[in-house]
Specification:
heterodimer, A: 55 residues, 3-stranded antiparallel beta sheet, B: 366 residues, 7-stranded antiparallel beta sheet, 2 helices
């Protein structure tokens, strides 16, 4: 279960999400075929707040 | 002679091929991966499961929705003399004798559509498929297996019976081909193969649907016993094979390394194995970032989620603890950029932080 979502940036811009899922930290690509990415979109649709500290 | 391992089918005489005959492709006859439950990269046992997930044997998803509490494990209890070393075990540790309508417990494997094109689903030549497996439980009675087509919202269910308590039994179920609805030819989830172990009335209140039809939830698991009704209950399965055709051939044993590589398309965990073992390499990018790059062990289904723990990084004369930073991944490789100050162009090395289980993990499961 996802408990936290944060945008990650590198030199080129927004590149991935950092999530906590089942107490493990993952970096999730911006890839529609990735099931964690799909879960993030559902988590956002269900009212989850994405942390965005900028680049 | 049966095909007993991955081979190039068009290089074999037709007389050698029992069930699967295909041209110009390398193909395992078993549509399912890790059917002998021999690969368990995530671990061999997981307790207190109420929601399930991918927790032990690779590729096998325990789908648990608030129906009891379970220990899930890679077991060494196997049918005698069949060549198996492992099975997948469900052990009920908190019972739920009266499941709510939406509760369910099942074991499933999710499959990519591009792996299934030779079944010709959605055409007049659609192939039948035959599911075979060894199963054992103290809980006798009716159990349900299901094929669910995610692309076209269709499904078919069949029942089987566990006749003798605590005895390994081999079951064979044939599903007709479906002339309606093709699988997408891509890396997305197209087919779920499901073994129910319990279900509430949402999935059991109708009439079991034994031919391909549009999904009616109430017809999916009708008659299924409730494996969650006692903490004495256990269920084991191994030797799982789904193949084209109407007969079950002998289980296809693959070499361990081949089986592992098939699993790694969906998930891999690379361990340091040595307290200060090698991780990866990179370099200082500008004055404030270090980039580390690595390759996946096989081409993955999609760009994976990445995780890494218990590593140290040596960079620009300094060292620090390291975990996966801002990543960019592909099906073949990954990079991580972390905020660390140093001299542009200096090398950086990742090594285990006095931990033999430092890991780089990629996950592109369905």
């Amino acid at each position: 279960m996802i408990t936290s979502v944060e945008k990650q940036y590198d030199r080129f811009g927004f590149c991935s999400y950092r999530i906590i899922k089942n107490n493990v930290e993952w970096s999730v690509p911006l890839e529609e075929a990735n099931t964690d990415y799909q879960a993030i979109q559902e988590w956002i649709a269900d009212g989850g707040t994405v942390i965005d500290n900028g680049a | 002679m049966a095909i007993t391992r991955i081979t190039t089918a068009n290089a074999i005489a037709d007389s050698s091929v029992q069930n699967v005959k295909m041209s110009n492709i390398v193909q395992s006859k078993n549509i399912l991966i890790n059917g002998d439950m021999s690969i368990a990269q995530r671990g061999t046992s997981s307790s207190s499961n109420t929601t399930g997930g991918y927790v032990t044997c690779d590729r096998w998803l325990a789908d648990i929705d608030t129906q009891g509490t379970w220990t899930l494990s890679q077991s060494t209890d196997v049918p005698t003399g069949q060549g198996f070393a492992n099975s997948f075990k469900y052990d009920c540790t908190t019972a739920d004798a009266s499941p709510a309508a939406g509760d369910k417990i099942n074991l499933q494997q999710r499959l990519e559509g591009q792996m299934l094109q030779y079944l010709k689903k959605g055409t007049s030549s659609a192939e039948s498929t035959t599911l075979s497996f060894w199963v054992k439980s103290n809980k006798t009675g009716t159990y349900i297996c299901e094929l669910q087509d995610l692309d076209n919202t269709r499904q078919i269910s069949k029942s089987y019976t566990i006749s003798s308590a605590n005895t390994w039994e081999k079951k064979t179920i044939t599903f007709a081909g479906d002339t309606t609805g093709a699988f997408g030819n891509d890396n997305a989830r197209s087919l779920d193969v499901i073994w129910y172990l319990g279900a509430g009335s949402n999935l059991t209140s109708g009439t079991l649907n034994t031919s391909w039809n549009s999904v009616t939830a109430a017809n999916r698991a009708v008659g299924q016993v409730n494996l969650a009704d006692s903490t004495s209950n256990e269920w084991y399965v191994t030797g799982v094979q789904l193949e084209a055709g109407t007969t079950a051939s002998e289980f296809e044993f693959l070499p361990y390394d081949v089986n592992l590589q098939r699993c790694q398309r969906y998930y891999y965990k690379r361990l340091s194995e040595n307290a200060y073992g090698p991780g990866s390499q990179g370099m200082q990018i500008g004055s404030s970032n270090v980039m580390i790059q690595g390759y996946h062990p096989v081409v993955m289904r999609s760009a994976p989620s990445m995780s890494g723990s218990n590593w140290s990084i040596e960079y620009s004369g300094s060292s620090a603890a390291w975990s996966m930073g801002s990543t960019r991944t592909s099906t073949t490789a990954w990079s991580s950029e972390n905020s660390l100050s140093g001299t542009d162009g200096n090398a950086a090395i990742l090594y285990a932080n006095n931990n033999t289980a430092a890991d780089i993990t990629g996950d592109s499961e369905l």
